[in-house]
Amino acid sequence: MPSNKKFYIRTFGCQMNVYDSDKMKDIFLSHNINQTDDFQNADYVVLNTCHIREKATEKTFSDLGKIHKKGKEDQKVIVAGCVAQAEGELIQKRAPYVDLVIGPQSIQSLNKFLDKNNLPKTSITEFDVIEKFDTLNHIKTNTSNKSAFVTIQEGCDKFCHFCVVPYTRGSEYSRTVKEISDEVKSLIDQGVVEFTLLGQNVNAYHGLDTQGQSNNLASLINSISLIDGVERITYSTSHPVNMTDDLIFLHGENSKLMPYLHLPVQSGSDKVLKLMNRKHTRDYYFEIIEKVRKVKPDIALSSDFIIGFPGETDKDFEDTIDLIERVKYMNSYSFKYSPRPGTPAADREEIDQVILNERLKITQDLLNEQQIEYNNQFVKKTVQVLIDGAGKHSGQIKGKSQFNQSVALQGEKEIIGQIIPVQIKEVLTHSLLGEKI
Ligand code: SAH
Ligand code: SF4
Ligand code: F3S
After folding, report:
1. What's residue 1's pLDDT?
2. What atom of ligand 3 comes closest to residue 104's alpha carbon?
3. Using one digit for the tens of pLDDT, what is the confidence trace for 389-401?
């Protein structure tokens, strides 16, 4: 049935939230409700929120205030994601105009309400991950992109002492190999060639196959790489503890696996790693990096760092800098430690903010320097770029190399969607300029 209703969706946070937003988009489209980028005139406004660092809740309330003030009458407001999960009650109390509060494992309830054409004022924060994927498996996927995210694993059982994820996304759950393969096939039918397999702890994957056998991530990647039409595979985010040898070796064996690995270490100090409950040492991390580089010498490595975790001394910080200098990353993310309500580290004494800011700057300068150094090696070399859209400047197109670098070049829009060889000409801070060869 045609409808002139519209939805608007804004996404914060990690790739898993991007995936969930795409799924909510699919749910709306399956009810003939079309997307708009004008929230004021949308019938449904969705904020898909992230709770990982400071001010997340305040930001949500300030966005909600704006929506409430400027949005059209009868607009339905939906708060989804990790702030919804963590602060559902507070949202209903402080922003009573919000209609639906849905946690990350309850987004499928949107489908049920739209089926009934009735969005009640309620909050759903069950961890119903089985029902989530049972519902989503039956909703048609819609994409015009060449690269897609596929969530293969949800939740986390690691309980790092700084992190809200185990509380907002619940415990670990792996989808079956068949469910994932079916989703990959339906995305291939729409032209997708590159797949990023997602999980907050993706290498803890242990989904069942049709024989009822448990498959780890290495075996899942092997199965997916055999599907006709799959050209590139990558996965995110991995925990060092779950970097099994077969997954490491796969980087040298499976040509569809991109030579890129995001392996967050958070700190280079054994003392801080212990305080964080990361469950491994720096030497263990070095061992993994060494093994991966042995099987795939040109692999691009990236990480996340938390700077200023409670108890981090000058010596601990030096250990982090030393680790970065030894590993040499292609790019990495560094964050100021932010105490999160309900996590074990929340009540620990915080370190001085001036010292923390100085350490953050030193870390970011070093990581930027390493990124430029890494990219400089590519000048005059050829990389394989999946062209995914128009670039910033006229006549420009852009895409991603197999090493996960952003590359821009002059070219016709007709080659969007193809993987083409590009010779690198110039290195900018966070991207590369190249030429079609
Ligand atoms: N599952 C991933 C990371 C999930 S969160 C892993 O295990 O590495 C993404 C990143 O946010 C983390 O790697 C961490 O660097 C950062 N982060 C998480 N909680 C944080 C906090 N309380 N303060 C600052 N940064 C945080
Ligand atoms: Fe958070 Fe990642 Fe630690 Fe899980 S493994 S608690 S998601 S940082
Ligand atoms: Fe944020 Fe939730 Fe992802 S807290 S990082 S949106 S899992």
Report:
1. 55
2. 2
3. 999 989 999 999 9
